Amino acid sequence: MAGEVIYADLNVLEGSFRANLPGPSQQLNNRQCPCWHRVVLTIGCVGNIVLVAALTVLSVMVFQVCSSNATSSNNTQLVSHLRQSLCEPQYSNSAGASCNLCPLQWLLHLRKCYWVSKITGNWSKSHEYCSLRKSHLLVIHNSAEMGFIMNITKSKTQVWIGLHAASSMAKWSWVDGSFYDDSLFRMNRHDTYHAEGDLCAILTRQNQAVTVACSEEYKWICQKEAVPI
């Protein structure tokens, strides 16, 4: 009899214990994180992404600065080497002065470079030849330059220059857009070529320009700015 009572009591206690245990759905709900946990996790992920992006941008900026400094240093060394190798002694060792350089086979005068052709061609061909070499046909604006040209062309009878006119009645102009100044040299206008159509000029050893048809063929002089270093 006593044994049966004890067994009954145990059954009652076991049933009561099971009734108080949380069900599967209650256990799942208890395991879910609160809402503020998810917010903190989201903010943390976004913060990490922003941090990685900022570090990437910063790395790129540092690389660009370092590359720029290295390039600047290399350019400085290159200029210094060119000055020592190509410039006159008074320029190569002076930090404040600069010398001017011309391409190979071009003649330097002050701050300009000149090239005298060895072949002949008409005015258009001569003009195109100079343009392809980033230069233009000779333009003379002062007496010092005129004297230099007379010196380098003394062995050449006649050469094309960058002087032309739309007709015998039009104003003569240089290829740079400026107009002819008759105080520098005299223009000898041949009556033979006073016809309709373009006219061009050649420079002679007599320190004068002569009017000729642009289709004739002569040697020419190209001119361009020198490169300062």
UniProtKB/TrEMBL annotation:
GO cellular component terms attached to this protein's record: cell surface; plasma membrane
C-type lectin domain ranges (all copies): 109-223
KW Transferase (keyword) present: no
Alphabetized SUPFAM superfamilies for the sequence: C-type lectin-like
Top-level taxon of origin: Eukaryota
GO molecular function, one term: signaling receptor activity
UniProtKB keywords: Disulfide bond, Membrane, Transmembrane, Transmembrane helix
InterPro entries: C-type_lectin-like (IPR001304), C-type_lectin-like/link_sf (IPR016186), CTDL_fold (IPR016187), KLR_subfamily_B (IPR051527)
Record Gene3D superfamilies: Mannose-Binding Protein A, subunit A
UniProt-listed PANTHER family: KILLER CELL LECTIN-LIKE RECEPTOR SUBFAMILY B MEMBER 1 (PTHR46784)
Transmembrane region(s): 39-63
PROSITE patterns per UniProt: C_TYPE_LECTIN_2 (PS50041)
Keyword Membrane: yes
Protein's UniProt name: C-type lectin domain-containing protein
GO BP term (any one): regulation of natural killer cell mediated cytotoxicity
